[in-house]
Design goal:
The protein has 475 residues and is mainly alpha-helical. It has 19 helices and eleven strands. Helix 15 crosses helix 16 and helix 15 (395-407) crosses helix 17. The radius of gyration is 32 Å and the shape is elongated. Among the domains are: 87-234, 3-Layer(aba) Sandwich (Rossmann fold), CATH 3.40.50; 379-474, Arc Repressor Mutant, subunit A. The chain has helices at 18-33, 54-65, 88-100, 111-123, 188-198, 214-224, 256-262, 266-274, 289-295, 310-322, 326-339, 348-358, 367-377, 384-390, 395-407, 414-428, 433-444, 452-459, 461-474, and strands at 5-8, 37-40, 104-107, 146-149, 156-161, 165-170, 178-180, 203-207, 230-234, 237-238, 306-307.
Length: 475
């Protein structure tokens, strides 16, 4: 195989998970970096677990992330169908070929018989609970049957893995496995091997949890004399406690749809996911899709688990938000502000001021609500270190002077407020930190916050005067 053809093969059993998104993204980068083809194949043979909207949702969020594909259910490239349930006749044909070749056989055992056999082996202390082959060589019977692959004895299966190096499995570790179930739907490993060959897949990049599937797939390829694709099993994604990322781990947002709903930028998420187990030859972490394609090198895939660093994700997304225009940031934030009922009676200029105040500290779109509430909607309190600071000489006179000037200030804008602060400082002899810090504390109750004139403009004259009065009552 000289041409590069890779595939991402999701099962429509749920929404697009961060781990699956990484698999898709690495295959996409590999294809684009090598002038190859990126195929999205739907492995939907697990009919009991399929979700009706699973395919549509997964593909929609792949597109949202910025991935496009050369072949799939909506883009025929001559290797279809791309949905496994539409390829059942093909799998059955190859399964019966294996029977004719003496490499597979019909198994008439019921689930109850198989369970009883496994239990008996367990009680006898068997290390491997492999099927006993009691149906091997049986004449055809008029009852339902599955088809099992006859695993060769004393055979080694070795392949060179891009990430793991040389990997070897022994056939004795794999019992005769079902390739076609009684309902005549193929099992995952059988269908996968058939499809990878017929679709001329050159490289298989996937998570390391799939590595134990590889020997079964190699058995099928060996049976038909097919060449192996090149495999690369990417290391696990772990949380900050070095534990495998579990869908039950609520400390980490794990589905791409959730990131979209919270107002993360797809370009930032693409950038972050691309660094989960890949170290580009670059000192810069903020990399566009085009830069990542240019830098992608399968030989730089990590051999150590990839840590999902939430702080790094937040840093990257914040960097991307900072690069947005004011209009783009406002467009990102407006749905969340509207839903929270913030600024219902305010004009466009007020919203622009709000974005200017918080843009540099904004990590994701939805956060605009909590940032606003933290500064403007919480009850005014003056205590602790902030109160102690306000007890210093000259502070009360400054607050009184500033309050009087704000009461008659026209117009009430960031520019006029900035001038008023300076004028109050001249009137009272206060400057530097002893000018700006007391006024910040007096209007917000906090020693830290966004640009002071912009903040007061957003608060409005009434709230500013009210907080100044509460401050004077306290000091």
């Amino acid at each position: 195989m000289n041409k590069i053809r890779v595939r991402y093969a999701p099962s429509p059993t749920g929404h697009l998970h961060i781990g699956n998104a990484r698999t898709a993204l690495f295959n996409y980068l590999f294809a684009r970096a090598n002038d190859g083809k990126f195929i999205v194949r739907i492995e939907d043979t697990d009919t009991k677990r399929n979700v009706e909207t699973g395919i549509k949702s997964q593909m929609a969020y792949l597109e949202w992330l910025g991935l496009d594909w050369d072949e799939s259910i909506n883009k025929d490239g001559g290797y279809g169908p791309y949905r496994q349930l539409e390829r059942l006749d093909t799998y059955r044909e190859y399964a019966y070929k294996l029977i004719d070749m003496g490499l597979a056989y019909k198994c008439y055992c019921t689930e109850e018989e198989l369970a009883a056999e496994r239990e008996e082996m367990r009680q006898k202390g068997y290390d491997k609970l492999h099927y006993s082959r009691k149906c091997l060589g049986k004449p055809d019977q008029d009852k339902p049957y599955a088809i099992r692959f006859k695993v060769p004895d004393n055979e080694s299966y070795t392949f060179k893995d891009i990430v793991k190096g040389e990997v070897t499995f022994q056939s004795e570790d794999v019992g005769d496995w079902v390739i076609l179930k009684k309902n005549k739907i193929p099992t995952y490993n059988f269908a996968c091997a058939i499809d990878d060959h017929l679709m001329e897949i050159s490289h298989v990049l996937r998570g390391e949890d799939h590595i134990t599937n590889t020997p079964r797939q190699l058995m099928v390829m060996d049976a038909f004399g097919w060449p192996y694709p090149t495999y690369g099993h990417m290391t696990l994604i772990v949380n900050e406690n070095n534990k495998k990322l579990s869908k039950r781990d609520e400390s980490i947002i794990q589905f791409i749809e959730q990131y979209h709903e919270k107002g993360f930028l797809p370009e930032a998420l693409f950038n972050f996911i691309a660094l989960l187990g890949f170290s580009p030859d670059s000192k810069e972490e903020i990399l566009s899709k085009e830069e990542l394609i240019e830098l992608f090198d399968q030989n730089r895939l990590s051999t150590s688990p990839a840590t999902f660093d939430k702080e790094k994700l937040h840093y990257i997304n914040n960097r991307y938000i900072k690069a947005l225009s004011l209009e783009e940031t406002l467009e990102l934030c407006m749905p969340y502000l509207k839903e929270a009922g913030i600024g219902e009676n305010e004009d466009a200029e007020w919203f622009e001021s709000l974005i200017k105040v918080f843009k540099d500290r904004l990590v994701y779109g939805e956060q605009i609500v909590s940032l606003y509430n933290d500064f403007f909607a919480r009850p005014f309190t003056l205590e602790g270190e902030a109160l102690d600071f306000m007890q210093q000489e000259g502070v009360r006179s400054l607050v009184e002077t500033f309050k009087d000037e704000v009461a008659s200030l026209e117009p009430f804008t960031p520019d006029t407020l900035k001038t008023t602060i300076k004028h109050a400082g001249k009137e009272t002899g206060m400057k530097g930190k002893m000018l700006f810090m007391p006024i910040r504390i007096a209007v917000s109750g906090s020693m830290h916050g966004p640009d002071l004139p912009q903040m007061m403009n957003l608060m409005g004259r009434e709230m500013v005067l009210e907080n100044l009065e509460k401050t004077l009552e306290k000091i």
